[in-house]
Amino acid sequence: MATAQDIRKNFNLIVDGKGYAGSTDEFNLPELSLQTEEYRAGGMDAPIDITMGMEKLVADFTLHSHSRDVLSLFGIRQSASVAFTVYESMESYDGTITQVVHNMRGKIVKINQGAAKAGEAAKDKYDLSLDYYKQTIGGSTVHEIDVINMVRIINGTDVLADVRSALGM
After folding, report:
1. Least buried of 43, 114, 159, 169, by fewest C-beta within 10 Å?
2. For the chain, where are the E strands, in sequence order?
3. Rounded to whole angstroms, how far apart are CA atoms 146 and 105?
4. Which InterPro entries match (predicted)?
């Protein structure tokens, strides 16, 4: 009999070491997408996709609070980065709770402070450009992408290890 399994039910956001439980409206995790190029040569019946790397890692989140601490992280120097961590709880129908952790590093590249309206809570939206992303489910690493160091670990296998070796890295 099929039942609901691994339903993502709740989350908590940590920005630069400070928690925002109760203040975070939503967090959109980075979309993992391979950058491909279509390739077809003589002797091939159809084109295939050749992986050329990954698309840029971006994420965003929305806060109900007008946080001075988070606002002050915009526009930091080029070599600096900010740590973002999202903790999620997943629950299955049998009551099993599993922790999901998303560790990210990058910059706040855009702040939309929205409209202030009488009688309505304003929200601040933050857009992120990431150079690191790691997803752990139940203590096991599913994805770890380190753009600067050319690391892409998928379910325990570093798929770029041979490329780094060939490049003398």
Report:
1. 43
2. 7-15, 18-19, 24-28, 34-39, 48-54, 57-63, 82-91, 97-112, 124-137, 140-146, 151-154, 157-158
3. 9
4. Tail_tube (IPR006498)
Distant-in-sequence, close-in-space partners of 124: CB < 8 Å, separation ≥ 6: 62, 63, 65, 66, 67, 70, 71, 111, 112, 113, 114
Spatial separation of the C-alpha atoms in residues 168 and 79, rounded to whole Å: 24
Distance CA 163, CA 77 (A): 30
With beta carbons less than 8 A apart as the criterion, state whether 150 and 165 touch.
no
Structural domains of the chain ordered from first start: 7-29+52-166 (2.30.110)
Tell me how far apart the alpha carbons of residues 63 and 67 are, in angstroms, rounded to a whole number: 8
**pLDDT tens-digit profile of 33-88?**
999 999 999 999 999 999 999 999 999 999 998 999 999 999 888 888 999 999 99
On whether the pTM is more than 0.85, the answer is yes
d(CA 93, CA 97): 10
CA distance 61 to 84: 10
Q: 141: closest CA among 154, 130, 129, 151? A: 154
